[in-house]
């Protein structure tokens, strides 16, 4: 997804208000952007707290700064600066975290981000964008260049099944019809699940929805109809349960007086075995793999 991200920003490099900051990351990935941006590409070094404060200052000067690092380094280390310098002043700083969820695999918990959007969404004015596929990047970047508030963009690895025709980008997208439960998946995790569900008969296959922006303020009418028809809503995300999409969706459904008959979630469980492995290994341990999810849905 980083390549698509870089290409999209290169296309925006003529915007003289655009400034890109990196925490000494992007080798063999962001060089085209550095060439295009020239002195508006700033390597802030391994100093994320300072980088975020500098980004806030640039935004205060009517520039449009983007600050990039490995996901936990862009939201956890500089959390105070994000809160005090960016969010309390409602500045349009775009935070970009690469390798969301278990993306950095065997590098372990210090490099995993299992509470990133949950933590950031507690801050005033913050909104998060979680692309599932490379094709999501351009429309998201277009949106992010127009916002007037802080945002977090969580990058991962695209897993789009070959020849699958994606619907036009939207914060809510229905990817598959089925007669089973209603399934909502957040971010790139949906790719492997989609591939598995394509092989199931429609009579047992769930309705598959993809959610790409948080926090939602309303539901599509078709989504509500699906919940009412199926009676079972399941939310799946590579993120902890606290502050995650499952809790956000449950709160909004209750607030609107539209609770499903049955509501379940599948979330990142941390490290049940106490061991580290690939992203796929951690997904299986947490029951976020397609086989486990289908069992959870009683397929």
Please tell me about this protein's structure.
The structure is a single chain. The protein has helices at residues 2-10, 31-37, 48-60, 71-75, 79-86, 116-120, 137-144, 190-197, 221-230, 245-255, 279-285, 290-296; strands at residues 18-22, 41-43, 64-70, 94-98, 127-129, 151-155, 172-176, 182-186, 207-211, 213-214, 232-236, 262-266. The radius of gyration is 19 Å and the shape is globular. It is of the alpha/beta class and 299 residues long. The relative contact order is 0.12. The protein folds into 2 domains: 2-155, Thiamin diphosphate (ThDP)-binding fold, Pyr/PP domains (Rossmann fold); 172-296, 3-Layer(aba) Sandwich (Rossmann fold). The strands form 2 sheets. It has a 7-stranded mixed sheet with strand order 2-1-3-4-6-5-10. Strands 7-9-8-11-12 form a 5-stranded mixed sheet, with helices on both faces. Helix 7 (137-144) links the parallel strand 5 (127-129) and strand 6 (151-155). 33% of the residues lie in helices and 18% in strands.
């Amino acid at each position: 997804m980083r390549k698509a991200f870089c290409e999209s920003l290169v296309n925006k490099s003529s915007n003289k208000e655009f400034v890109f900051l990196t925490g000494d990351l992007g080798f063999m990935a962001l060089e085209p952007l550095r060439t295009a941006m020239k002195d508006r590409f700033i390597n802030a070094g391994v100093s994320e707290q300072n980088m975020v404060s500098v980004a806030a200052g640039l935004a205060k000067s009517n520039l449009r700064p983007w600050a990039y690092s490995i996901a936990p380094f862009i939201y956890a280390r500089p959390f105070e600066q994000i809160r005090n310098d960016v969010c309390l002043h409602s500045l349009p700083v775009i935070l970009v975290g690469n390798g969301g969820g278990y993306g950095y695999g065997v590098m372990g918990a210090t490099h995993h981000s299992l509470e990133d959007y949950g933590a950031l969404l507690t801050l005033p004015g913050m909104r998060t964008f979680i692309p599932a596929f490379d094709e999501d990047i351009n429309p998201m970047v277009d949106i992010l260049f127009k916002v007037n508030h802080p945002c977090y963009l969580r990058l991962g690895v695209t897993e789009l099944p070959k020849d699958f025709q994606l619907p036009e980008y939207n914060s809510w997208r229905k990817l598959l019809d089925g007669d089973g439960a209603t399934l909502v998946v957040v971010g790139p995790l949906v790719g492997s699940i989609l591939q598995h569900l394509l092989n199931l008969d429609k009579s047992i296959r769930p309705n598959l929805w993809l959610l790409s922006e948080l926090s939602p303020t309303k539901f599509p009418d078709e989504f509500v109809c699906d919940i009412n028809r199926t009676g079972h809503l399941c939310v799946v995300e590579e993120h902890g349960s606290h502050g995650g999409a499952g809790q956000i969706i449950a709160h909004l459904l209750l607030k609107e007086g539209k609770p499903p008959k049955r509501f379940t979630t599948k979330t990142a469980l941390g490290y049940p075995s106490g061991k580290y492995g690939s992203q796929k290994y951690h997904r299986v341990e947490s029951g976020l793999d397609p086989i486990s999810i289908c069992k959870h849905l009683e397929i």
